[in-house]
Amino acid sequence: MYSRAYKTVIAAPPLLWVCLFLLLPYALMLAHSFWIVRDGFLVHNWNLQNYRALFTNPLYVQVFLRTARIAASVTLCSMLLGYPLAYYLSFHAGPRKEVLYQLVIVPLWVSYLVRGYAWKTILGSDGVLNGLLQYLHITREPVSFFLYSPFAVVLMLTHIYTPFVFLPIYAALEHIPRPLIEASQDLGADRRATFLRVILPLSIPGLLSGATFAFVLSVGDFLAPLLVGGPSATMLANIVQSLFGAAYDWPLGAAISVSIVLITISVLFLTERLEKRWSFR
Amino acid sequence: MSGGAISPDHATLGDALLEIRSVAKNFGAACVLKNISLQIAAGEFLTLLGESGSGKTTLLRLIAGFEQPTSGEIWIGNERLDSLPPYKRRVNTVFQNYALFPHLSVRENVAYGPRVKSAPKAEIAARVEEVLRMVKMNSFADARPGTLSGGQQQRIALARALINRPRLLLLDEPLSALDANLRKQMQSELKALQREIGIAFLFVTHDQDEAMALSDRIALLRGGSLEQVASPRDIYSRPATAYTAEFIGQTNLLRGEINNGVVRCGRLQWKTSEANGPALFSVRPEAIHLAGSEDDATGVVRFRGTIRQQIYSGASELLEIDCGENQSLRARIPASGPLTGAHEFVFSTRDAVRVTESSDAHELGRKDHEPQ
User: Model-level pTM?
Assistant: First the structure.
């Protein structure tokens, strides 16, 4: 047993850290979201006006929906890429497994910002992709819609979050005892039936946590729309940034931030319930 | 045939259900099975017995289809089995650690086979009930496998295999994870069940007692070759090789020389009609008795030895007898109180079974190791 004093000494720094840099800012943000700005001054006048604006102002509603759409697309795309990749690595890669696994992980070591700029270079009008298309005489002039579109944002975020989706799925697949697959075949199920009845159900917890990663991180993403999105792909975090900056409307920015936090918490809550339902060990 | 002699006690070709023809299996450079030929009769309980690494599980996996033979063929009836994928073979397996699906209930686990073959729902339900009753688990139909004990999971694994009405059931050390008492109980239930449903069982174990208790025939594997295939009684009373004699039960191996109709093993000697040359004999400890006055008959080997150790085990006791000239024998006699000093012992020459040497290509260093 450890003494009380020892426990306090050990627990104090992290507690202090969390309170000072996490809970306090959250509390401030929550408080701000109920205040308003009048004539360039913050007025501590408690009301729900900011939240009302979120649901009534078509601009915000549009950005909300777009953010949800982009996050959902990223989630779907990275699942469609990550699952087959994880499946292949876990079941069919054989001795190449370790090397391929490292190759999937390597991009995570590269700065997020660098990867964003890389996409800008690839998709831009004098970028790599347009250069290639013109060199191959597929197009005569640079194609401009690659960059500065929701498509570019989805592409970049999918690229960034696919490893995050891959990892939990891979872990789930690796944890499936191989005799279960043999048992399934032994009982008359071919590859397809074995996948649908054994492998897929047992990998759902991994799939869910991967999807949660991709969705939650995409919903709050700020850099991708800024770098490759352009005005047509503005997302919630960009609005928040401008409200806290040039637009100087902290309360409204806080209200949007609180909404993002609420969305995130509800998604986490939901997927955790689902994951519990689908885990058996 | 490499390795030891194989007893002629095969099932006759006419009623062979499964036929393994000259099957060999290599994993890379390692040769795990060498030229195995074996037949299983319909309704037979055949045990593949061997130490770990003897190839018994590999042979089972070849039949189930999880491995492909390097050479040779496997036939079931008129159907060649080794070219079919596992899900097309009419054999089913009970796996060592049961391999029950954790996300399915007991009922869904058992129904898995008929369901993937799209049997009618009502029929599946009836069959599930039937096999669950057979293994006395119908009250657990809605439980998840994770909540069941080892023995219960074992029964479910059995039910899940039997519901497919296989012609041959493969069992891969199914009882090895159970504790001793439960194991004995499951052995007798398994045997009773096999008699009742009449499906041929191919049972893999490393436990010779289990093999003796359950089997119609035992196929003893050693280093990837069949050492001997025979009924438990035959394999015990007429072991073909020194390895078999030592692996199944306890024995005394007597090394000697035949010279002009007389066997000489150390101080022991008896008459024989066999040709001259070196010879090896197995004499079971229980074949050796304390000599009485009535033991003067011919066909009996009589010798004098000093009792070095006496190990009491209830109904019987094991004596270690020093016969001089560095020769010692073990005798199992009915419990008869403490014995010391020199005594006369006898055994019948019929109980001295000539076996072939086991110092062949296996090189397992088995000779120094005494089986329990």
Answer: 0.82
What does the DSSP 8-state code read for residue B265? E
**Residue A206 resides in a domain:** yes
Q: What is the largest CA-CA distance in chain A?
A: 76
Q: Which of residues 193-222 of A touch B (CB under 8 A)?
A: 193, 197-198, 201-202
Take residue A116 and report the two structure tokens written for it. Answer: 């964003």
Whole-number Å distance between alpha carbons of A71 and A69: 6
Q: Is residue A165 part of a domain?
A: yes
Candidate from B66, B113, B146 with C-beta closest to A281: B146
Contacts of B88 in chain A (CB under 8 A): 188
Q: Which two tokens stand for residue A176?
A: 């499936």
Q: What is the pLDDT of residues B277-319, one digit of tens each?
A: 899 999 999 999 888 766 566 788 888 899 999 999 888 999 9
Cβ-Cβ contacts under 8 Å, B169 against chain A: none
Q: How far does the CA of residue B109 sit from the closest CA of chain A (Å)? A: 10
| Tens digits of residue pLDDT in A132-157 | 888 888 888 777 777 888 999 999 99
What is the tally of structural domains in chain A? 1
**ipTM exceeding 0.90?**
no
CATH code for the part of the protein at B244-368: 2.40.50.140
Of B65, B92, B116, the CB nearest to A189: B116
